[in-house]
Design brief:
The protein is of the alpha/beta class. It has 6 helices and 9 strands. The chain has helices at residues 3-17, 29-46, 76-84, 147-162, 164-169, 194-201, and strands at 51-55, 63-68, 92-96, 107-109, 112-114, 120-124, 134-139, 173-178, 189-190.
Length: 205
């Protein structure tokens, strides 16, 4: 099946079955798993590296269907192509990539709390590329043995603050490190201010 054909096949399936998904977050866990499993199966018939998120504000007139590439830049064009072909539907809003949600939240991941108001980052300087964004994100309890947890929690926070597209495309270098004892020397900032820092570096108003 060609790309255009598989895109059409997915949206044809969605239009026939979309009513089942309008309340998918309000059904019992077993039924939700069944519905979402079928949704992913149908989506992966078109592209195995794309994933859906269904939700939105309870009072919103439309339910949101977000198509994500899980932050993998290689598959961003596939997300954009699929959403560009989405049909106009009264009950649905179709969104490419996880959108930014701002701050004022915390996330639990791997048994740890990640709060952007309490986490700091240190900007890295590269005089050869003054518009590039490199950062160290600092944790006082960071250990190399738990690196995957700290990286995973960090990317969840960044996706929420910046959105999937910006997290992937706007940050040129990122690492998680143990908070240095002399951190005040490094011009650190709260992670909740990262959006402002990126816009400043990229000369965005």
């Amino acid at each position: 099946m060609g790309n255009a054909q598989s895109i059409k096949a997915f949206w044809d399936w969605f239009q026939k079955n979309h009513h089942q998904y309008l309340f998918v977050n309000q059904v019992d866990a077993q039924e939700k798993d069944r519905l979402l499993g079928e949704f992913v199966r149908q989506l992966h018939r078109h592209h195995e590296h794309l994933f859906p998120l269904i939700g939105g504000h309870p009072d919103a007139k439309k339910t949101e269907l977000i198509i994500s590439a899980e932050g993998i830049k290689e598959y961003f064009p596939a997300v954009e192509e699929l959403i560009a072909a989405a049909p106009g539907m009264e009950d649905w809003e179709f969104i490419a990539f996880k959108p930014p949600m701002g701050t004022g939240f915390s996330i639990q991941y791997g048994g740890k709390d990640f709060d952007p108001e309490k986490i700091i980052f240190i900007p890295l300087r590269n005089d050869q590329y003054p518009g590039s964004v490199g950062i160290h994100i600092c944790y006082p309890d960071y250990q190399d043995t738990e690196r995957n947890i700290f990286m995973g929690g960090t990317y969840l926070i960044l996706d929420t603050i910046l959105g999937e597209r910006s997290t992937t495309l706007d940050i040129d270098y990122l690492d998680v490190v143990k908070t240095p004892p002399d951190v005040t020397k490094y011009g650190y900032r709260q992670l909740s201010k990262l959006r402002e820092y990126i816009d400043q570096k990229k000369n965005r108003k």
